[in-house]
Write a structure and sequence with these properties.
alpha/beta; six-stranded mixed sheet; 10 helices; about 30% helix; disordered N terminus
Length: about 325
């Protein structure tokens, strides 16, 4: 039987949704994440070298509140006056002030307390392996900026290192079924205590993002911003860290390492295999006209832990 190949438009419509990203059980997810597969990158061990080739480290954001507690978490956590109440130990101790009110969290969720720990452990792992990070960029999504900030804390980074918030690193836009979120400004992030660079001007502005972009457009956007940042940072040198979404790990490395953009089906399948704080790493090789990038084994361990479901003490009374 011949398999019908979807047209670009059909492919775009069928997979223009984040549904299915969390349909796997922990056993299946663990098996898939830890399975070594074929790819364009070269898997190899890494030995930290301050004078070695540059690295591009790509990290997915940490555990998000809305997925953990469901879409009704806002009604559960905010009273009629808009005051936040922490209803579970894994909910954030505090949440940032939003200019348009707490409803903006509906499409721009924070991370959980476990998420903070995940990100901090990732930062600690980077520091323990002696990997110097000179530049850190983040998607404008709150969950990504909070993850980046916690990674810096885990690294015990110099206070002068600031997160550059880049709109071009946001996820594939058709997954935002209700429209683009209202993102916090750099000033908002700083007011919330996050180490964001208020002077950085995003290279791709929100006004340039197309909510109906096709998978190939998403890869093109991601590759464009990745190449630009790597070119700019090469003038001063140092390793670069991106904190983004599950798709970031592939979209920002695929074409950089010589691969082709994936279609919507392939992308949707791939992101299901990327856990919170999942990591991909690319290494620069060669010089001048022979300069290229290859994917290598992440230079530090990644994170795995079991789920902990909601508990109702009343079951003890049955």
């Amino acid at each position: 039987m011949t398999k019908r190949v979807l047209s670009s438009e059909e492919d775009h419509k069928m997979y223009a949704s984040p549904e299915g990203l969390l349909t796997q059980g922990p056993k299946d997810n663990y098996a898939k994440v830890n399975k070594v597969g074929k790819g364009f990158g070269v898997a190899k061990s890494f030995s930290p070298d301050a004078f070695g080739p540059r690295l591009l480290v790509l990290v997915r954001h940490a555990e998000r509140v809305d997925i953990t507690f469901g879409g009704q978490w806002l009604q559960y956590s905010f009273d009629k006056d808009g005051s936040y109440h922490r209803r579970n130990l894994n909910m954030p101790k505090t949440v940032p002030v939003r200019q348009s009110g707490h409803q903006d969290f509906q499409r721009d969720t924070p991370i959980t307390e476990i998420g903070m720990m995940q990100a901090r452990l990732t930062g600690e792992a980077i520091a323990e392996q002696g990997i110097p990070i000179s530049h850190i960029y983040s998607s404008p999504a709150l969950r990504c900026v909070q993850t980046a900030d916690a990674i810096l804390k885990g690294m015990n980074a110099d206070p002068t290192m600031k997160i550059k918030v880049e709109h071009g690193l946001f996820e594939w836009l058709p997954w935002c079924r209700d429209g683009l979120p209202t993102w916090m400004t750099p000033e908002d992030f700083v007011a919330a205590g996050l180490a964001v660079d208020k002077t950085y001007k995003t290279q791709i502005h929100i006004s340039q993002l197309n909510p109906k972009e096709k998978p190939e457009d998403y890869y093109k956007r991601s590759h464009k911003i990745t190449s630009s940042i790597l070119d700019t940072s090469s003038k001063v040198g140092g390793n670069v860290l991106f904190v983004g979404h599950a798709g970031t790990l592939d979209a920002c490395s695929r074409q950089l390492t010589g691969g082709q953009a994936r279609n919507g089906q392939e992308l949707t399948s791939l992101v299901q295999k990327v856990p919170y704080c999942g990591v991909a790493t690319c290494e620069e090789t060669g010089t001048g006209s022979n300069l290229s990038w290859q994917m290598i084994c992440p230079p530090f361990p990644t994170l795995t832990h079991a789920p902990n479901p909601r508990y109702d003490w009343r079951t003890m009374r049955l």
